[in-house]
Amino acid sequence: MEDLHSFGWYAKRVAKYMPEGVFKPVPARLWGGLAYLLIVIAGFLTIGFSDWNPLLYIPISIVLGASFAGMGFLGHEILHGTVIKQPLLRDILGAIAFWPLSTGPKLWRKWHNLNHHIHTQDDEKDPDSWPTIEKIKKMKIFQWIYKLPFFVRAFFGFASLSFQFTAHSLHMFFLFVTDFKKKKQPEVWMQTIMPWASWIGLLFIVGFGKWIFMFLIPLIIANMIVMGYISTNHRLNPLVPVNDPLANSLTVTVPKWVDVIHFNFSYHTEHHLFPGMSPKHYPLVKEKIKEMWPERYHEMPMGRALKALWQTPRVYSSEQTELVDPKKGSLYGSLGNGLNPKNIKIKVDRHKSQSQS
């Protein structure tokens, strides 16, 4: 693997070219969150107080799901401190923004801000990294899954995006809750329990039929939108011994209007370089990175990134720079290590080699 540098190494060299004031909070971002909140309230009231054919609720559910996701993107921004700095107000607004996804602000900062950002793509320390072949061999359920044909695994892998954020968030809660000091743990519990209590309470208020359209379908849609980004953020990149954002992160490109409604969440390499900068300024960061390290910067259209995920396995080889299919032992490159997203090919076909020998 080429020489790696820490995110601080890059940040130091890029920051001096940034305009004055780019590291200040941008409270105006909250207007987008207010718009999403009003849309959600309007959608809930429309479904709750109407008696329409259920098919007519589907478009509302889609809008609600998109709004849940948009609120989550803003919540991510708020809890990085790039919207407001006051800790209490930051946590209150972050909790509201993450309420549809039922993720508490204290858990998110512990899981995402501290562990994921500081140890990105570290095999042992990043809670979001995918496993190596050695770890898979110790997990019986994954051993069974990886006996399935590649196409079947890819299909179910993409289908799982519909609930993966919610499931992973709950897993992170149980993983990290005991890491908090005893006196803080009740608050962490409450921040997780209260959103779920509200959604379960809604079920009893409106009934199962309307609850499906008000919460369940929107949650599935929100998971798919959020995981569409998260699954492309790092899963085509190698595991790395040094937290190098240009090696371990991918920026995807989407239409400009999508960047607007998703608060520039597509600029992921830039985010890992400057998590304390408002994403409003990430186009400036991207321009400078591409000017200084064009050969190391990874970006591609969202559709191409998702297609590459479909065509490659999600297990890392022992070397951690390649992806491996546990069933056949076939090796695929990762970004910066032989993977060409426009033409996915097996790097080493061990199954074919063994057959010939």
User: What summary fits the major beta sheet?
Assistant: 2 strands, parallel
Tertiary shape: globular
**Major β-sheet strand ordering:** 1-2
Mean pLDDT: 94
Low-confidence stretches: 353-357
Tally of DSSP helical segments: 17
Roughly how many Å is the radius of gyration?
21 Å
Rounded to the nearest angstrom, the distance between the terminal CA atoms is 30 Å
Number of strands: 4
Number of folding domains?
1
Q: In what range is the share of β-strand residues? A: under 5%
Query: Which class do the helix and strand fractions yield?
Result: mainly alpha
GO cellular component, one term: membrane
Pfam families: FA_desaturase (PF00487)
GO molecular function: oxidoreductase activity, acting on paired donors, with oxidation of a pair of donors resulting in the reduction of molecular oxygen to two molecules of water
Protein name: Acyl-CoA desaturase
Give the tags:
two-stranded antiparallel sheet, mainly alpha, 357 residues, globular, 17 helices, two-stranded parallel sheet, 4 strands, disordered C terminus, 57% helix
